[in-house]
Write a structure and sequence with these properties.
With 611 residues, this protein is α/β, with parallel strands linked by helices. It is 43% helix and 21% strand. The longest helix is centred in the C-terminal third of the chain and has 42 residues. The chain is globular and about 105 Å long. The termini are far apart. About 5% of the residues have low confidence.
């Protein structure tokens, strides 16, 4: 068993009168590379701070193995100006360890991260601050790494460099990231944070989808079981049984417990529901660029480049930081004029833009006033009026958050607010500049669903390889020397085309013909009839089992029985156990049939002809 490095025992955290964690038990062992996943607001960053010792517990304790070093990367790292990058990196080491050897290591790390050690720390971008902070962590050679969104604002070469470093890390690692490809390649354990509980899986993020789906299915089944038990208990209550007697009071108490459990299951966080509508009009040609070039201060950013964007195309733009991705985007949108060549736009172009720096949000405004700048409580969503609170709820905002200033919202919440504003208006060209930064995985999945269904045109700048592979139809790669080339497919397709020549597409065997709708309908009706017959019989069988249990319990309650008939007691106890098992099995079968009935009804509805 690997040595334990860090743990929280019986941990309790209360924030603003809300209990975030209670009785939490987690531990990190040597060699474990744990990805921590969960929705924004569930406490992932808080949990990392607790593990790092940056926050105090309200109960329980934190244990760190003596003579081990834990290093923590916050979501928004800061680097003090007024010194060179080498100095800032070396400051993470004890004074006695700031000698030549470690100075050399610091310089090497900074160079590998694309930074000049002699550069002053003033005026660093977000991505540069993160790279300096990563160098600060790694130069110290920690035993435990705690990383909060380490890939934010990093370009693809740096992300891949960090992947290799972390995959070879032999200590304990806990990381939060929205980059699924990064999580898949680095992690070998998963923690899923959900409503104050940490579910653990002894596998990395690659297994998360199947594992979490199984957990959700089990919870939904338990929720349905509670619903059916609630129906049974309410059915019993409505038959007029009084609650005065002790036994009946016990059943009423059980009913209230079931109701409370049912409320707990129903009190789950909402699902983001995003919609994007295509504006009417617009021709087949959206953007045509012919031989465009651009240079700044004598440096060529874009060498002659041509492309034609058709309606429905989904174009990804990738490349290292500083390679000219934003410049190319501005050239294609007509916001910057090329030094040579030309750009033409199609007719009826309506653009919606999602900015990387989120600068278009007023920090003093609230989500309510952001969507209703002229007052009132209605927001026009794709031509229809909706109440602003209901619309914000679609984007996972709680009612108490709608009047919170934007500056007090988390990065993910500001992202969702910007999405809510942009998706309210129809457009036929949707421009997204680093849309996945600070999005939780659930919202990211839903954004992908929206973009997959969107029939307009997309221009997408992103470092998220998995997101690109799921969304784009072609990828423009900027090499960093001004060269740009377009490849069919997503990021993985582009990488494969650059590495090897195109092969012959495999020939697929023809699929067997699907049954006709009429035959499917007949099969469904036959199955429904059989199911309904069994369902009709089950309540009577459950009542009979309940009666048998009551009679046996009454016999066992007779004190005379225990005086001289031990064999009779044993017989009745066995019958009672069997009757209870029979009742439990019948109730379980009722639950299964109710769920199957709903599924068959949905399938039958799908086969019904329109009109």
């Amino acid at each position: 068993m690997a040595p334990l490095l860090l743990s929280l025992r019986d941990a309790k955290v209360v924030q603003a009168d809300r209990t975030l964690f209670d009785g939490l038990e987690i531990e990190v062992a040597e060699g474990e590379r744990i990805c921590l996943v969960g929705r924004n607001g569930t406490g992932k960053s808080t949990l990392l701070k607790l593990l790092a010792g940056k926050l105090d517990l309200d109960g329980g304790g934190r244990f760190q193995q003596p003579r081990t070093l834990a290093a923590y990367l916050p979501q928004e790292p800061e680097v003090e100006p007024g010194a060179t990058l080498r100095t800032r990196v070396m400051e993470s080491l004890p004074e006695a360890e700031r000698g030549f050897d470690n100075a050399y290591r610091a310089d090497q790390l900074l160079a590998e991260l694309g930074l000049d050690p002699e550069r002053d720390a003033d005026g660093l971008s977000g991505g540069e601050r993160r790279r300096v902070s990563i160098a600060r962590l790694l130069v110290a050679e920690p035993d435990i790494l705690l990383l909060d969104e380490p890939t934010n604002h990093l370009d693809l070469p740096t992300i891949e460099w960090l992947e290799a470093r972390l995959a070879a890390f032999r200590g304990g690692l806990v990381l939060v990231s929205h980059d699924r490809r990064f999580l898949e390649r680095v992690s070998n354990r998963t923690w899923w944070l959900d409503r104050g509980r940490v579910h653990r899986n002894e596998a990395g993020y690659a297994a998360f989808a199947a594992w979490s789906a199984a957990l959700v299915e089990a919870e939904e089944k338990e929720q349905a079981r509670l619903t059916q038990h609630l129906k049974l208990e309410e059915h019993w209550l409505h038959r007029g049984v009084t609650a005065r007697r002790k036994r009946n009071q016990g059943r009423l108490a059980k009913l209230e417990t079931l109701r409370r459990q049912r409320r707990d299951y129903l009190r789950q966080p909402g699902q983001a529901r995003l919609q994007a509508k295509t504006a009417e009009g617009g021709g087949a040609m959206v953007i045509e660029a012919e031989g465009i070039e651009k240079a700044y201060a004598g440096r060529t950013v874009i060498r002659p480049f041509s492309t034609r964007v058709q309606r429905g195309d989904r174009i990804g733009i990738v490349g290292p930081n500083g390679a000219g991705k934003t410049t190319l985007l501005k050239l294609l949108l007509g916001e910057t004029l090329p030094d040579a060549g030309r750009v033409r736009h199609g007719t009826g172009l309506v653009i919606a833009r999602y900015e990387q720096d989120r600068a278009s949000l007023d920090p003093k405004a609230t989500p309510w006033t952001t969507l209703c700048p002229d007052g009132g409580d209605q927001v026009r969503v794709q031509g229809q009026w909706r109440h602003v609170v209901g619309y914000l709820r679609d984007f996972l905002f709680h009612e108490e958050q709608v009047l919170t200033p934007v500056e007090a919202l988390s990065g993910g919440e500001r992202n969702r607010l910007l999405l809510a504003r942009i998706l309210a208006e129809p457009a036929n060209l949707f421009v997204l500049d680093e849309p996945t930064n600070d999005l939780d995985l659930d919202t990211l999945d839903l954004l992908e669903d929206v973009l997959a269904d969107y029939d307009g045109t997309l221009l997408l700048v992103s470092h998220d390889r998995d997101f690109l592979d799921r969304i784009v139809t072609s990828t423009i790669l900027l090499e960093g020397d001004g060269t740009a080339a377009e490849y069919a497919g997503g990021y993985a397709d582009m990488a494969r085309q650059r590495a090897e020549p195109q092969g012959v597409a495999p020939v697929r065997a023809p699929s067997p013909a699907a049954p006709s709708a009429a035959k499917q309908g007949y099969i469904l009706r036959k199955e429904q009839a059989r199911l309904l017959r069994e369902l009709d019989r089950l309540p009577g069988r459950i009542d009979a089992a309940t009666g048998a249990i009551a009679r046996i319990e009454a016999d066992l309650a007779d004190p005379v029985l225990y005086a001289g008939k031990p064999e009779r007691v044993a017989e009745l106890a066995g019958r009672l156990e069997a009757a209870r098992a029979e009742k439990a099995g019948l109730e379980e079968r009722w639950l299964e049939l109710e769920m199957l009935k709903e599924t068959l009804e949905d399938e039958a509805e799908g086969l019904r002809p329109p009109g």
